[in-house]
Design brief:
By secondary structure, this protein is an alpha/beta fold. The protein has a single domain (3-212), classed as Rossmann fold. The protein has helices at 3-13, 23-29, 48-58, 70-74, 77-86, 118-124, 136-148, 168-176, 181-192, 196-201, 203-212; strands at residues 18-21, 38-40, 64-69, 91-97, 100-101, 108-109, 129-133, 153-158. A hairpin with a 6-residue loop joins strand 5 (100-101) and strand 6 (108-109). The radius of gyration is 17 Å and the shape is globular.
Length: 213
Amino acid sequence: MKTLDACKVLDAHRGDAIVVCTMGAMNALDKLPLNPLTMACVPLMGGAASIGLGLALARPERKVFVFDGDASLLMELGGLVTISHAGPKNLYHFVFNNSIQFAGLGNLETPGARRADMVAMAKACGFEAAQRIDELDDLESRLNGILASPGPSFIEVVGEIAHARGGRWAQVAADAGYADQAHLIREFVAMAGQTPSIQSTSGLGRRSRNCRA
């Protein structure tokens, strides 16, 4: 399945949940309507789960979704133990596994791609609820049950095995010297208050271009 399609399904079910996203999922959410309860953790690659844990403990009345990446997870494996030990019942950790890191620019194969068993890692760290989902229809059919069950829950969302081609913003990021598109978007949102895709299609974006012209 495509990360964007999976994010659309999750976004439709999030309700008032806080979403902490990184890397590929962050790029996908950039294409959806901006939500004030969405937090990007770039450039802290490998920090999404720990940030999500802190928010889940601070706001136990609200669900917290973590939209992580496979390469990011490898940088925070110790965080899985911490999450399991803390046991937040409102935390749902989705890991988008497309076996590629820096998709659109570097397109590097993730170490252990399609060999490392992330669900087994989560279970070994103490997660009682850990599962792998390969198909979009399966994600849609199982999501209500996942969210109705107490966390912490670990869900590996398996994406297409493909080297993504850089789009417009990926090329802008490369030309500007960013490591990847996610870092560019994070700084853009911090300064402009909205994603570049939204601003480029808004009246404000058109007026800005006219002013520069």
